[in-house]
Amino acid sequence: MSGGENGGATHAVDEAERREQPAHFAFDEESERRIPDILARYPEAKRASAVIPLLWLVQDQMRRQTGSAWVPKVAMDVVAARLGMAPIRVYEVATFYFMFNTRPIGRYHLQVCGTTPCMLRGSEEVARACRDATGIKAYGETSADGMFTLTEVECLGACVNAPVLQVDLDYYEDLDYESTVRLIESLRRGERPKPGSVTGRQASAPAGERTTLLDVPGE
Amino acid sequence: MAKVTVDGIEVEVPNGATVLQACEAAGKEIPRFCYHERLSIAGNCRMCLVELEKAPKPIASCAYPVADGMVIRTDSPMVRNARRGVMEFLLINHPLDCPICDQGGECDLQDQAYAYGMDRSRFREAKRSVKDKYVGPLIKTIMTRCIHCTRCIRFSQEVAGVPELGATGRGEAMEVGTYVEQALHTELSGNLIDICPVGALTSRPYAYVSRPWELRKTDSVDVLDAVGCNIRVDSRGPEVLRILPRTNDEVNEEWLGDRSRFAIDGLKRRRLDRPWVRKDGRLAPATWPEAFAAIARRLTALPGHRIGAVAGDLADAEAIIALKDLMAALGSANLDCRQDGAALDASRRDFYLFNTSIAGIEEADALLIVGSNPRVEAPVLNARIRKRAIAGKPFPVGYIGPRVVNLTYPADHLGEGPAALRALLGGAHPFAETLRKAERPMLILGRGAVARADGAAVLAAAWRLAVETGMLKPDWHGFNLLHLFGGQVGALDLGFVPGEGGKDLAAMLAGDVDALWLLGADGFDPARIPPSTFVIYQGHHGDRAAARADVILPGAAYTEKDGTYVNTEGRVQRGYLAVHPPGEAREDWRIIRAFSEGIGRRLPYDDLAGLRARLVEANPVFGTVGTLERRGGADLRGPAGDPAAMGESPFVLPIANYYQADAISRASDTMAECARVYGSGAHARLAAE
Ligand code: SF4
Ligand code: FES
Ligand code: FES
């Protein structure tokens, strides 16, 4: 599927989007505390390199302040001014990476991996569970209660425990329809279940009983 | 040098050249979209693929540096296949709407698809479509046609110096635009139309007007600023439909300013297309003989010294010399071409020329700008300064003038008026040291900076600074005057200034003459002309002065006559008639010549050749057309004027509104729309960062 259907990454600022854009943005105290460390990582002449970490900081601050982790346009302008870049150069970066949401999202960002390994292992069931449990109809939408935004992402690099659902920054793995519904229900209650495999397997070790290396000498 | 073999032809190219350049040196045509000689290399369209011996796959020749001994093939099955494949991919999301596309007939995509592509598409899926963008009143966008070559992005960033275009989103969702809808803040936006290889960016005013093969193409020169950009005038029947730049590396490279390109609808509006004579206080239509008779009655009754003439900013040298000769025949030395009152010293050419030359800017290593905003006064010349500024080697720029100016390159603001110049002269200011230390320092003095009461002093001070900081050397002339319009230098070269005992414009307006012949002179407020003065207005537009005239003689605009113009560098160039003047309007020199005959003072030339011989006689510089000899500054003696007489008032920039600066652009709806959108060129005055 094309990236264009990814709600978090549509980028044309049309009329509806303009209305949701705040008029102001300023880094808060916590962000300001972290900025010097970030800037110190890059030589003065290459300050623009800090654009991704600063946008990330913006998204984090928005999560903290509004409960929705996204990067408004004014914040991109603030980043541009801070780094001495032309604003368009920041817009380019912010819209290129799917991890930046250029429109407001729900409290929880459900990111279903739809790439081949997850797809073969049932990601379509995971997606269906997400839709059923949240009332969302299609990728890119936010649930009516503002709790969830559902997007499809490409391989999250955890295929070994496919299918995978990323919730904000946490991975939930080995999901099926029921476990996904249960996960969303607990999120709705304000709980954060322990990330990782929901079937309880350890990290990415084989599922179930050990089937190989049974005859390790000396054991 | 590296030896490279291209299709069996051996060529030598400099190290660091690209494979594409080597192929061109071997006479091989390489198709391309993203590559452009005057922009940085992007290497993203892949149309330029060639085969490199021993390489496992085709290489993008535009981005691949040559190495000695390379063997390249541009016509192998692999290359043909690769091109066909690339073309197929480019067309996958292209709407193939050539029949309704204004680029049709001059489209790189069309041409190259025809030459290198397949005759059918295998793509059966839905094509993507992209919403059109608004980027200003001059450019129409049809973004579904965009092939993401990024030329426009690189042009606006690199040449225009306004990084406002970009590529947002990624993959299939990538879009070229400004992200936040806005008109591009540049006077060079029209060049985006030329640079876009497809029909994504086209001319808004020219939309659906014509097909390229219907147009008659006439080479000419632009006169709406003093750069002398080489242009091509495209016309159909009696109408100029568009103006495009022609390549001239020494002048405009391949760029053109927006006023010069888009003011052409002004050529059709408010035109003077018949003579008019004032009768009982009102202007009434007249015939040529009636108009001439009315003038003759008045002029022949006056002594020569009570008659004056003023040459306008867009006048051609032919008309200027004819008028000067007519005035001489009438016994008048009351001539002036400095409508702005600029205290120019016409006694020596290098006192009023852009001596460094435009191409020479690239060799300079320090620059001081005094009382000028070249971005507004000469956008294409400003692009050359920017080119130098981003070329790598340090290029300190100092600027004296109003604070809120964005030149598109960094500049130190040294002050707002003559005080800063004084500080530099004394050597008290550190920038004087910067200039002195430079090998090839240059100075640009705006015409506006000398069009003031203490203009002569400013001129002399600038010259002295040039001498003091080593701008004048036998092989380098760093003193430059930046003029504003195409007719200004030609008039100075022909000495259209007060002769022996002659009066200047101020005196003529103070009532020292009883009759005034205005040759397209719309550059000053006609209310300054005393009510009793008899005014003859010869020109093409019913602009400022025509309404004040007692007799109007309809002349030809620059696209309607064979004319000679001298640009700010002193380069003599020729424009050619593209369309005939409207109605009864005539070429200007012929009008003057005909009038002279009527009063029995026939000017001694009957045709253009004779007139041009007279031009060369008046000033031999008119004998060399097109080329320019680089000047050195051997003679240090300065222009008349006392630097100590400089006043205190800050410099005022002469062009307040880029889009409406002359009779033609003031008549243009397109330019009016630009002025509305851009707020009289305010973007060039956004505070520099
Ligand atoms: S608009 Fe034209 S110049 Fe710009 S990227 Fe698209 S095809 Fe290239
Ligand atoms: S395919 Fe889903 S994590 Fe790799
Ligand atoms: S011209 Fe070489 S990649 Fe585009």
From TrEMBL, chain A:
Domain of life: Bacteria
Catalytic activity: a quinone + NADH + 5 H(+)(in) = a quinol + NAD(+) + 4 H(+)(out)
Compositional bias per record (Basic and acidic residues), positions renumbered to this chain: 12-22
Binding of [2Fe-2S] cluster, residues: 113, 118, 155, 159
UniProt GO molecular function: 2 iron, 2 sulfur cluster binding; active transmembrane transporter activity; inorganic cation transmembrane transporter activity; metal ion binding; monoatomic cation transmembrane transporter activity; NADH dehydrogenase activity
Keyword hit for Ubl conjugation: no
Ranges for region Disordered: 1-24, 188-219
Keywords: 2Fe-2S, Iron, Iron-sulfur, Metal-binding, NAD, Translocase
GO CC terms of this entry: catalytic complex; membrane protein complex; organelle envelope; organelle membrane
Cofactor or coenzyme needed: [2Fe-2S] cluster
Cofactor: how bound: Binds 1 [2Fe-2S] cluster.
GO BP: any one term: inorganic cation transmembrane transport
SUPFAM superfamilies given in the database record: Thioredoxin-like
NCBIfam families assigned to the protein according to its UniProt record, in alphabetical order: nuoE_fam (TIGR01958)
Family statement drawn from the similarity comment of this UniProt entry: Belongs to the complex I 24 kDa subunit family.
PANTHER family, sorted: NADH DEHYDROGENASE [UBIQUINONE] FLAVOPROTEIN 2, MITOCHONDRIAL, NADH DEHYDROGENASE UBIQUINONE FLAVOPROTEIN 2, MITOCHONDRIAL
UniProt name for this protein: NADH dehydrogenase
Taxonomic source organism: Caldovatus sediminis
Automatic annotation (TrEMBL), chain B:
Reactions that this protein is recorded to catalyse: a quinone + NADH + 5 H(+)(in) = a quinol + NAD(+) + 4 H(+)(out)
GO cellular component: membrane
TM segment ranges: none
Domain 2Fe-2S ferredoxin-type residues, every copy: 2-78
Cofactor dependency: [4Fe-4S] cluster; [2Fe-2S] cluster
Principal EC category: translocase
Occurrences of domain 4Fe-4S His(Cys)3-ligated-type (ranges): 78-117
Documented EC number(s): 7.1.1.-
NCBIfam families: NuoG
Family: Belongs to the complex I 75 kDa subunit family.
Entries under PANTHER family matching the protein: NADH-UBIQUINONE OXIDOREDUCTASE 75 KDA SUBUNIT, MITOCHONDRIAL, RESPIRATORY NITRATE REDUCTASE
The protein's name in its UniProt record: NADH-quinone oxidoreductase
Organism: Caldovatus sediminis
